[in-house]
Specification:
The chain is α+β, with helices and mostly antiparallel strands. The chain is built from 21 helices and twelve strands. Nickel (II) ion binds next to strand 2 and strand 8.
């Protein structure tokens, strides 16, 4: 039996090989990422511990058209031990027309993340949203989508079995992986020129999703340990990067959440069916390569602080009117408004950590203090950061938009169809998990164990009330 995590690792590996063959610049990105990661790991023993996980770490992005397609994608990912986590509404987060709502499929348990953390950011077109599609176009779009098959029945049957039995026997695993990777390859099927163009006028994303008869991996993203060095090296190799690194600035304090950047989408040859029925060769520019640096997961309080700093950076940047970069404006704000050390982040309840009794804790009969700050400061507990495993809506919207050719159109006088995590869960037919709850549960369990081991009864009552 090939267990779930081996299926996931093999899928990620094969998808990466397939995408490298389709988009050669992605292979360059992997090379440079590998170089940078080796250099950082040589310097930093802390990082070396995670090097194996980081070297294999990728996220992908796919886009589907309907709740039915999303449900099927969820079935394929369930076979790989990946569950929907988080709800992202990109319709309002983007300045251009991005008519989608999204979730991320990923492993949830810490040991599963350690084995292979592969995740896929998955977006669904909101065809009923009147800001983008009128009733006539909605109906034609839905008819078009209802007529296509993204995932063949044999793939879905194998996925159901893999989910039920927590793995597959080797022959079936091979068949499942072949079909699953093929479902995300770029299709040679001709693109209907007039239909694609009609959708692209409204939104390039809508055309990429609903203008073709299949889905494809949109990008794959390796994890890099120094994204600023990587950004410069890619530029040195002559690859055009987007203007900035998205997310928190580089600064002299703990790295948190997620910093991402990408190279611009490249022309890819595609076959078109012209209005007169003839076949021609043209190009579409939708797929790209992205890279990311992952930092510490933030609690709701920490996230609110991050969002406030981001909003303040926006305000000041607008006031500077082009005289300063985002990085220049953000850094001093962070230095004034964000904890400068991991310990302060932990003690302030802004970030998530796993806690353990310190090996060198006081053994002179003193009682451990009742508060987290005291336990850390006086050497009773050690705190190890929990890595942020999710995404940022604003960066996601930025990634979408920076790679679109046109801005599209949106009728802002109309209101959008309402979507939230519950509605998305109904569409998927599976619960959409709350990322904050996942991190908090992991942190709380470690803290409880550590305090019990220390016999820190006061702290236990104070910090773990339940
Ligand atoms: C997904 C964009 C979001 C990220 O890393 O934030 C994303 C897409 O372009 O389909 O992948
Ligand atoms: Ni991405």
């Amino acid at each position: 039996m090939i267990p779930t995590w081996r299926l996931r690792a093999a899928f990620a590996r094969r998808l990466s090989a397939m995408y490298g063959a389709e988009v050669p610049a992605y292979t360059t990105l992997l090379e440079v990422t590998g170089e940078v990661n080796d250099e950082v790991a040589r310097r930093d023993p802390d990082v070396r511990r995670d090097a194996r996980r980081v070297a294999a770490e990728r996220h992908g992005a796919i886009r589907v058209g309907t709740p039915g397609e999303l449900r099927q994608a969820a079935q394929v990912f369930a076979a790989l031990g990946m569950r929907p986590v988080g709800f992202y509404d990109l319709r309002d987060a983007a300045t251009s027309a991005v008519p989608v709502v999204s979730t991320a499929f990923r492993p949830v348990e810490p040991d599963e993340l350690d084995r292979n953390p592969f995740r896929v950011f998955t977006s669904m077109l909101t065809t009923a949203d009147r800001r983008f599609f009128d009733a006539g176009l909605q109906a034609r779009l839905e008819t078009f989508l209802a007529g296509r098959t993204l995932f063949p029945p044999e793939l879905l049957a194998l996925a159901e079995r893999a989910e039920r039995e927590h793995g597959l026997v080797p022959d079936q695993a091979e068949r499942f992986l072949t079909l699953a990777v093929a479902a995300f390859e770029l299709s040679p099927e001709p693109v209907d020129r007039a239909w694609y163009r009609e959708l692209a006028r409204i939104s390039a994303v809508a055309a990429d999703i609903g203008g073709v008869t299949s889905t494809h991996i949109n990008h794959l993203t390796p994890r890099v340990l120094d994204i600023d060095v990587l950004y410069r090296r890619m530029a040195d190799r002559g690859i055009t990067m987007i203007d900035e690194i998205q997310g928190p600035p580089r600064w002299d304090g703990p790295g948190v959440l997620l910093r991402q950047t990408s190279f611009r989408a490249l022309d890819e040859p595609r076959t078109f069916r012209e209005p007169d029925g003839s076949l021609t060769t043209g190009a579409l520019r939708v797929r790209f390569g992205e890279v990311e640096a992952r930092g510490i997961a933030l609690s709701r309080t920490g996230r609110a602080r991050y969002d406030a700093l981001t909003a303040e950076t926006d305000r000041r940047l607008a006031a500077e009117d082009g005289a300063a970069t985002r990085q220049d404006v953000a850094r001093p704000l962070w230095e004034a408004g964000f904890p400068r050390s991991e310990r302060a982040l932990a003690a302030g309840g802004l970030g998530y950590f796993t806690y353990a009794p310190a090996a060198a804790r006081p053994r002179d009969g003193r009682r451990p203090p009742a508060d987290l700050a005291g336990l850390l400061e006086h050497g009773w507990l050690t705190a190890r950061p929990i890595v942020y495993e999710d995404f940022l809506p604003r960066s996601a919207a930025g990634i979408f938009t920076s790679n679109l050719t046109g801005h599209g159109t949106r009728d802002t006088a109309r209101s959008g169809t309402h979507y939230d995590g519950h509605r998305l869960a109904e569409a998927i037919g599976r619960p959409v998990l709350d990322p904050f709850q996942i991190y908090a549960a992991q942190q709380d369990a470690s803290l409880r164990r550590a305090l019990d081991a220390l016999g820190a009864d006061d702290a236990r009552r104070n910090l773990c009330p339940s």
